[in-house]
Each structure stands twice: as structure tokens, then as C-alpha cells.
Amino acid sequence: MDKKELYAYIDENKGIFEELSDKIWEYAEISLKEHKSAETYKTLLEELGFKVETGLAGVETAFSGTFGSGKPIIGILGEFDALSGLSQKSGLTVHDELIIGGSGHGCGHNLLGAGSLSAAYAVKKYLEEKGEGSGTVIFYGCPGEEGGAGKAFMAKQDLFYGLDAALTWHPDDSNQVTSGSYLACVQVEYKFEGIAAHAAGCPHMGRSALDAVELMNIGVQFLREHMPPSDRIHYSITDAGGISPNVVQPTAQVLYMVRSDTVAKVKSLLARVEDIAKGAALMTGTTLKRRFIDGTADVVPNSVLEKAMFKNFEETELPEYSEEELSFAEELKKTYATEGLPGFASNFSSEIASFVDEKTNGGEKAQNDFLMPLYHSEVTLPGSTDVGDVSWQTPTAQINTATWTSGIPGHSWQVVSMGKSTIAKKGMNLAAKVIAATAVDLFENPELLEAAKAEFLIKTKSGFVSPIEDGAVPAIAGEKIL
């Protein structure tokens, strides 16, 4: 099967995966609660001829679909969780909730998983034609990227060490090979327990858990001056103790996310945050409980795989858009403010910035229809992803495709609105082609795979440090700590 036949096969079967993407968009299940989504995937994988394994690494909604035998073994990563509070009707250029207070696919994971499975299905066809022992493809259903770090819990159980390489993608506003690292992070939830009392009649008999949360937050604000500028700390009060101001609040919870360049640095910074939590409990006469929620490692970029993905990007025909699609994109773009130029490399290369400026009319173009130049980076970018944990166990690379309008804010109603659009599906189909073609190159070219592994071994010689604490299990932030 040559590349043209591979692309034709993806086009012939794209309806299967577009329907899958629409179903997942409609389910809009949040992290670690993606039960209908996971069942839909598992049923489809079996129908498509993959061997399915479920409950990977003890994560109920984590699964895999395997086809083939022998080496190399190529993993393709898929996600399918939504975000709370982002319900939105499809195809609109105004904010209009589909379900009041409901969830929505504000990060495009309905597309991500379906596009990855489309690529895996095409690779399956290639392996069928190559015959027994020519290699193995594994599609990984990875839950909880938005708050659960499914891949990190899977990596904690060493699931990805057996792969020769892993490939993935993410919906975006641009067609590009992504590079650079991302911040490692951990999330820990703290519960303070005090004593309830009448806030006017006998306040001296109470011990306020809410005071403890507030004092912890104040302590962390003072910490910010004394941590490296790359570090980040965020928090959310998940339980303020009730709505009665005339009660000394006996319980309160706060969720903290701590980020830094590496897992080791995150753990060091977290230790300082935890000292502040202990101090807040001491000051208020309350007791402290903690629950580890999740964590992700920094990303190890692989220039060899990035070049291979870019080569296939160049050889793949980019989508063309109808007047109706472009009109929709232009109207939607009016609903949000934009900042800077699209494409991560525009921030690091003046030459690329000039190229993008010309291609987008200074960032005014509503729908990006070109390929960003290749740019390998070792810079640590804002944000975090559990793809990082995979990248410490096997050579890993990822791309973006233009499934959204230019400059669209992530985690927004606009992203949800575009999730079932023809623009989004064209980008999803493009991603499937680039990933499948790169996988085929890895099967066909042992030297390419060996070069990727050689780079990987150099960059990971310090060893993988899991951000997941020993004994931790997937947990949903905001639930009451017993």
C-alpha cells in the first residue's frame, strides 16, 4: 500500500470516524466519567477488527485496541473527555448553551480520538497487506486529559515502554508539527476540618476551616515572589464550607495545581505549598487532610520524528474551504479577541513570524489554510499535557491541524460550536493522514526508527520520574474528601 492508497483508504472510511466524533461531541463527558464514550470506542474497535483491552492501569475508562504482530510496535494516542460548563449548540456564531450548565468539547477531544483511530485503522489495513509479523499498531484510548491525567497513570504502570514510537495530534487553529516541552504539574486537594459554632453567639468555640483555606491562599501569594519565573501555581476553592455566614465553617477544601519545568522541580515547589497548608491548619486550630489528584511530566521533543511528520505534512494535500465555511469562520472570529500571530513558532523565529504575517494578513485571516514551517524547539511552553509522560517512555511526536478558526481561544464555547463542523472534520481527516503516513514510514524504514530512538535515549538518560504519587488512584477534584 503506497501513500496515495493510504490516503484514499482514509477518505473512503472517513464517515465512520466523523460519526464517531459527533457521538463523542454529543456525550460531552468530563474526565474519568467518559463511560458512554469509552463503550462506543470499544464497540467500534471490536467491529473494526482490533483486539480490545479495558481498564488499563486501573483506570476504568482507559483501553487499547491492538492489531498485528511483531515489531515495530507503534502507538497512536487518542483522547475523548470534555470540559464542564462549556455546553454550546453546534454551528452557531453566538453563545447559546445546549444544556444549561452542561459540558462541552471545548478542547476538541471528540475530534482528537476519532482522528487518531482513523489513522490506526488505516495502519491496520497497511499491516494486513504486509502480512503476519510485519508490525503492530496500538490505539490507546486515554481518558481524563483535562483533569485526571489518564496517560500519566498509564505511564506509572510502564504501559508505553514496550512501544517503539508513539504518535498523536491535537486540534488547533494551525497546521503544524509541534515541538518543545511543556510544564510538568501536579494537582493536590487539601481539606481543612474545624469546629462549627454560632458565628455571633459563640464564635470563640468555633475553628474555621474556611479561614484556613484563606490563610493558605494568602501564604501561597507571598510564595510567588520567591519561586522561579517559569513556575506557576493555581488554585480553586472546591468547597467553601456552606452558604450560611452565621456559621463558623467546619469544613473547606481547596485544589492546587503546581507547575514547573521538571517533575523534580514540581515536587520541590509542592513541598513548600504543603508547608503553607500545614501552617494554615496550625494557625486556625484545624486539621488537614490531602488527596493527590493527578500530575503530568514535561515533554521530551524528538526532532527525528518531527521531521518525519513534517515530510508527510508536505506531501499531504491540505483542505480547501467553501465560501460557506469561510463565511462562518469570519463571523465566528468576530466573537473573540486575538493576540499575536498563529503558530507556536511565530513566537520564537522572526523568519517564521514574517512568513505567517504574510500568509494571514497580519493575523486577520479567519481560517488558516497553509502549513507552518518546521521548527524544532527545546523551549518549555506554558500549559501541561500527559503526552509528556508517554514521551519519557518512548520516542513521541505530535502535530496540530486547523480544525478551528484562527486565534480561537481554547476551552471556549467557540471551540465547542465548531466541533461538528465540516472545517473541523477536514482537519481531523488531515491529521489521520499525516499520522498514518508517518507510522508507515516507521514500519518501512528501520533507520528512521533507530535515529528517533537514539535521540530519545540521549534526552531521557536522567530517567523518568513519574509525577504520580505511589499508591495514588485516579480521582476527581471537587468531590468531598472523607
Please bin the fraction of helical residues. Answer: 25-40%
CATH topology of the largest domain: Aminopeptidase
What is the CATH C level class of the largest domain, in words? Answer: Alpha Beta
Largest sheet: 7 strands, mixed
Q: What is the CATH architecture assignment of the largest domain? A: 3-Layer(aba) Sandwich
Report on this structure.
The chain has 482 residues and is of the alpha/beta class. The protein folds into 2 domains: 3-181 and 298-459, Aminopeptidase, CATH 3.40.630; 184-296, 2-Layer Sandwich (Alpha-Beta Plaits), CATH 3.30.70. The protein contains 13 helices and 13 strands. It has a 7-stranded mixed β-sheet with strand order 1-2-4-3-5-13-6. A 4-stranded antiparallel β-sheet has the order 9-10-8-11. The chain has a two-stranded parallel ribbon with strand order 7-12. A hairpin with an 8-residue loop joins strand 1 and strand 2. Helix 1 runs antiparallel to helix 3 (109-130), helix 1 packs across helix 12 and helix 5 packs across helix 6 (263-284). The model has no long low-confidence stretch (mean pLDDT 97).
Q: Which key phrases capture this entry?
A:
2 domains; single chain; 13 helices; Alpha-Beta Plaits; 7-stranded mixed sheet; globular; 39% helix; alpha/beta; Aminopeptidase; 482 residues
